Structure formats: structure tokens, C-alpha cells
Amino acid sequence: MTGASVPVVERMPISNRRIIIVFFGILLGATLSGLDASIVATAAPAIIGDLGNVSLLPWLTTSYLVAQVSIMAVFGKLGDIYGRRRMFAIAISVFLVASVLCGIAQSMNMLIAFRVLQGVGAGGITGIAMALVADLVPGDRLGRYLGYTGLVFAGTSVIGPFAGGFFVDHFSWRFAFLVNVPSGLLCLALISTTPIIGVRVKHRVDYAGAIMLALSISSLLLALSGRGSDSSWTSPRIVTLLLVFIVVGAGFLWWEARAPEPLLPLRILKGRVTSLSTLANLISGVGFTCGIIYPPLFFQAVAGFNAQSSGLLLAPFALTCAASTLFAGQIADRFGGHKAIPLFGMVCEAIGFLLLSTITVSTPATTVMAYGMLAGLGVGCVMQTLLYVVQRFSSASDMGVATSTVMLARVMGSSLGVAILGSVFTSTLIAEVERRVPGFAVADIQGTPERVASLAADVRVQLQESFATGLSTAFRVAVPIMVLGVIVVALIPARRVREHLAQAPEEVSLVDTATHGL
């Protein structure tokens, strides 16, 4: 801080009824940001059919993602300074305004611009929601409640595709955005039932750090997302973006070590427990994305199921992930095991993706589903348990920025997973198609695997083989990443975690110092 002592406000007791009401509001807000990506993905073909300009289609997701990950840590810090409930309400409001603007957009350029604004709101929601839960819930029940939030994040990956399809089939793609409005207003009403407490203290916002963080992360994601279209890591645009990421990222770390009130206090990542837990969340983010994106491609392009059936076959992965998140939190609360549980989870992820790397065109869809369930079990055991550990190791004044850092790592892991594994899958698919069906235009089926079923039988079989090979190769690349995750979690000092959590009081009812009132 600035050197002045921070006056601490005595914690205010809060009834279980009030906790449940406000917690439901937080969950509703988290659902908005989690549901948006999968709904829009399903509605994308209808959007292109209405607004045109198919070349801009990837930017529907990329613009949103770049804005989201760039702003998360900023909102986490602002929540520490001005109060997390206040900043959460602002993030929800930004998201709602952007949703309305997206719903009335008249061109792809307008829609992409409004998606950037929507990503800012989503970044604020994601960056603050988990810390707000930690403020609200007593420490002895925190793991359980974090499990509930994990259930929401996993569940949205199943509900989203069905919701998007429903709106497109029965109403309009615009409702995929406008549906956020009533839910968001209800969220604002619910979280407003908690009073703001805490003494106002002047602070300085690290604007220079915020700009450098946003620029470095944006450069990396733009480089990774643009890799597919440039098809070369040595293209001038990709090299320039990567250089910007390295130079500005190094400048960000240099500045944060010297800033009076840094956006991301490096002391948060100096301890082995918090740094390794954050890295493990990043790696598990790769696993979550891999388990969500690639099995549906197998179900549709190889096994021949339609989109709705593919969503049903994906549901066990998401539900297993959600259930293990919930029960892992409860087990950790009651019996401990804050290292053993995520270690078990990371091993499950590694084995699950190892099994998925063996799939062929003749592998039954139910077998792929079962392998995915094992990976989903692992993802659920890792993410929220280690988030809980980081929160309990963080001081009250750093709670928001520590939580948003973990969430940033998780989203970055998902982004890296899309970029790295997507590049492997695409390059393998193209090579296999060129080898098996010379002269076939791969662009005709990329992004629309369901069209494979409409091709001539001999071509269809070869393309199915190509898809299966591309997917198994992508899963094979994921295996060493998950093994690295096993090593990272194994290096977390279990004794220190045990001793620290045993000494930590059953706190964080309405935790409130002057720096982070609800």
C-alpha cells in the first residue's frame, strides 16, 4: 500500500439466509459470463447468415477473449481498493449494456466492437466472483461453496449449446445476447442486499501496470489466434506480436517490482504454494478446454452424430467435472487433502488424455465419452481446490488480486490450449487429407465437420480417418502437458499447506478491511 496503516473494520455477522441470497446472485453473474461463449458459438452460423462477412467470424470469440483476460487482474485490484461488491455490480452492468448493444448490432464490425465491451464485463465478473465468495462465506465452508461455483462453470458448457440452438431455431440469434438482460438485472438485485462496509481510504491505481498487462496478454493471444491463418510462426505479424509480448511482459514485471501499489503484487507468486497452485490451474485450464472442444469433433465428424446428440455425449464430461468439483471441495473442508485431491485429479487428467490419444475411427462414441469422464473427474478435483488454497494463503488486502490471478491463469490455460492443440489438430488434419484424398479442398469441411456425412462414401471414410488421426494427435500432445501438471502439484509442500490451513481461523464471513469492503 502507501505505507499508511489500513484501518480494519470489525467483521459483521451475516445470516445463512443472506449468504444464500447473495451467493445465488454471484452464481447468476458467473453463469452469464460462462454461458455466453458457448451460446454464441452455437449461434455463429446464423449470425454470419444475417450479417455476412464470414472472414471476421473468428473475431467473435477472439475479441471477447482478449478483452476478458486483459481486464481480469485490473478488476481484481479495483475490487481490493473500492470494494468487490461495487466493482462486481459495475462489471455486471457493463456486461448487460454490451449484451444489448450486441443484440441490436447491424454489422459484423459493430458486433465485434460490442463483443470487446462485453469481454470487459466478463473479465470483471470472472476476476471478482471467486473473491466475493471468499468474502461472503465462512472459512470452514469456503471449499464447499467454491465447489458450487465450479459446478456452474462446468454446467454452462453443456447448457450453452442447447440454449444457443433453441434461440436460433425458435427466435433469433439476437436473443443469445438479449437473454442476459433479465438474468443480469436479477443478479444486481440479489447482490445489492449486502451492505457495503469499510472505511474509505485513498489508494493509487496502477494504470501503467494495467496498460502493460493488457498489451502483453493481448499480443500473445492475437499471435496465437492468428497463427492458423498465417500458417507460420515466422510470419512478420506473428513475430512482431510475440516480440511485443516478450518486451512489454518483461517491462510489466520490472514495473510491478517497483510500483508503489502494483496491480499484481509479485509477492503473491513468490511462495511455492501460491505460485505452483496458480501454474497448476493454468495447466488444468488446458485440460478443460481440450475435453470440451475436441470430443464433439469426434462425435460429429467421425462417429456421425448431429450437433444435439454430440452435446448429449459431451454432457458426462461436464457433469463429472462439476460433480468432482463439488465433492472435492466438501472433502477438502471436512478431511483436508488440499494437495492429495488435486494430485489425484491431475493424474486422472493425464490418464484420461492418454486414453483419448488412442482413439481411432472404429472407437465407439461411448468409449470416448468414458475417457472424457475420467479427464473431467480430474479437472474438477484440481481447479477449485487449489483456488481455495491460494485464497487461504493470501492476506485480506490481496484476496481479490490473488483470486483474479488464479482465474487469469485458468483462462490463459484455456486460451493456450485452444491455440497449441488447435494448431496441432489443424496441421495434422490438413496433412492427412492431402495424403489420403489428393486434391480435396480441406477448407470446405474445416469448421463444419457435420458436412463430412454428406460426402461420397469413399471420400467420407478417408476424411473420418483424417479427423480421427488429427484428434488423437492433439490428445497425444496434451498428455505431456498434463504430466507436467502432475509434477507441479507434486512439488507443492503439503506440510506447509496443512499447517497454514490448520492455523487459519474460520474466517471470511463478511471479511472486510477498508480496502475491500463488499
Automatic annotation (TrEMBL):
Residues 22-497 form the Major facilitator superfamily (MFS) profile domain. The keyword Protein biosynthesis does not apply. SUPFAM superfamilies: MFS general substrate transporter. GO terms for molecular function: transmembrane transporter activity. InterPro entries: MFS (IPR011701), MFS_dom (IPR020846), MFS_trans_sf (IPR036259). Keywords: Cell membrane, Membrane, Transmembrane, Transmembrane helix, Transport. Signal peptide: none annotated. It is found in: Cell membrane. It is a multi-pass membrane protein. PROSITE patterns: MFS. It comes from freshwater metagenome. GO terms for cellular component: plasma membrane. The chain crosses the membrane at residues 20-44, 56-75, 87-106, 112-133, 145-167, 173-193, 205-226, 238-255, 276-299, 311-329, 341-362, 368-390, 411-431, 473-492. This is Unannotated protein. Its main location: membrane.
